[in-house]
Design brief:
213 residues; alpha+beta; eight-stranded mixed beta sheet
C-alpha cells in the first residue's frame, strides 16, 4: 500500500472512487446524484487545496482518500457548496434530489415547531481545520485509514494548526470509533440531519474535535 499526497493525474480515478468509497455507510449517497455530491464533497478539495488531499493506493489503484482543509474560514462552507450545486445541477428538477430536499424542508419545519436544532456548518477558531475521509470496502481494516489520518495530522502540525474538527453521523459507530482512536472527541449536541435517512430512520450529526497544541 502507498499513501501519498494527491496529484492531478489522480483526478479521474479519485472521482471514480468517490462513487463507491462510502458504500455501506449512512452517507453513501445523499440524494442519488453522484456528480453534484462530488461537486460538494470532493471537487473543491482537488481544486482549491490539493496539498491537503491524500490518497491511498494498492498496486496503483486508489482505495481511499482524505480531503482536508487547513482553515475552514477561507474555504467555501458546506452550505455554500450545496447551494451552488443545487443551482448548477438544477437539483430541484431531478426526482431523487427533489425528494431529498422536500423531506429536508419537512424535517426543518418540524424541528422548528418543536424547537429542536438541526445539523449545519461548524465554525470555531479553536478547531479551524477540517477533514473528510473515505475508504473503499475492500481496504477497510487494512490500515489505509490510519495511514491517511497520520499524514493529515503531520500536515496540520507542520502548518501550525491549533485544532481540527470533523462532522460524521452519530449512527455511524464504526466511524466514531475510528475518530476516537485518532484522538478526536465528541463536541456539542447531535442534531438531526434534515432529509437524510438510513434504513428508514433519521440520522444525527456528530461533531468531533482534536486539539493540536
Amino acid at each position: 500500500m502507498e499513501v501519498r499526497m494527491f496529484t492531478e493525474t489522480d483526478r479521474a480515478q479519485l472521482r471514480a472512487l468517490f462513487s463507491r468509497a462510502g458504500e455501506g455507510a449512512p452517507t453513501a449517497s445523499l440524494w442519488g446524484h453522484e456528480e453534484s455530491e462530488a461537486a460538494i464533497y470532493l471537487d473543491p478539495y482537488m481544486d482549491l487545496e490539493p496539498s491537503s488531499l491524500f490518497v491511498a493506493s494498492v498496486d496503483g489503484a486508489l482505495v481511499g482518500y482524505l480531503a482536508g482543509c487547513l482553515d475552514s474560514a477561507a474555504f467555501p462552507s458546506e452550505g455554500e457548496r450545496i447551494e451552488n450545486a443545487i443551482r448548477k445541477y438544477r437539483l430541484f428538477f431531478r426526482r431523487g434530489p427533489a425528494t431529498f430536499f422536500a423531506r429536508s424542508l419537512a424535517d426543518l419545519t418540524v424541528s422548528k415547531v418543536r424547537r429542536r436544532p438541526t445539523a449545519g456548518d461548524f465554525t470555531d477558531a479553536r478547531w479551524p481545520s477540517h477533514l473528510h475521509i473515505n475508504v473503499a470496502p475492500e481496504a477497510r481494516g487494512t490500515g489505509a485509514a490510519d495511514a491517511l489520518m497520520a499524514l493529515w495530522l503531520d500536515r496540520l502540525k507542520a502548518a501550525g494548526s491549533p485544532g481540527c474538527h470533523l462532522q460524521t453521523l452519530a449512527e455511524n459507530t464504526r466511524a466514531v470509533r475510528f475518530f476516537e482512536r485518532a484522538g478526536f472527541t465528541a463536541h456539542g449536541p447531535t442534531p438531526l440531519v434534515p432529509g437524510l435517512r438510513h434504513e428508514g430512520r433519521g440520522v444525527h450529526q456528530q461533531t468531533m474535535v482534536k486539539n493540536l497544541r
